[in-house]
UniProtKB/TrEMBL annotation:
Keywords: Cell cycle, Cell division, Coiled coil, Cytoplasm, Septation
Organism: Photobacterium leiognathi
InterPro entries recorded: Cell_div_ZapB
Family note: Belongs to the ZapB family.
Pfam families, A to Z: ZapB
Protein name in UniProt: Cell division protein ZapB
Subcellular location: Cytoplasm
Assembly and oligomerization: Homodimer. The ends of the coiled-coil dimer bind to each other, forming polymers. Interacts with FtsZ.
Gene3D superfamilies assigned: 1.20.5.340
Principal subcellular localisation of the protein: cytoplasm
Source lineage: Bacteria, Pseudomonadati, Pseudomonadota, Gammaproteobacteria, Vibrionales
Keyword Cell cycle assigned: yes
Amino acid sequence: MSLEMLEQLEAKVQMAIDTISILQMEIDELKEKNENLAMEAQELRNGRQGLAEENDKLRNDHNAWQERVRTLLGKMEHVE
């Protein structure tokens, strides 16, 4: 092989190494973003679950109040 061909090959190998390094950095960044998004998604799921539980409690409280009001109204009708 000539010296020129070796230099071209060396340049191509160096470009390949540089490209691989850049791609590895991008992969690392994407993995980190993925982990962050997964944690955020879990936090959102937990928040959603908490809101659903609070909503159920409020619905139950509302229903209890409605029943109490109905009972009081029924008692008032008997008073008249």
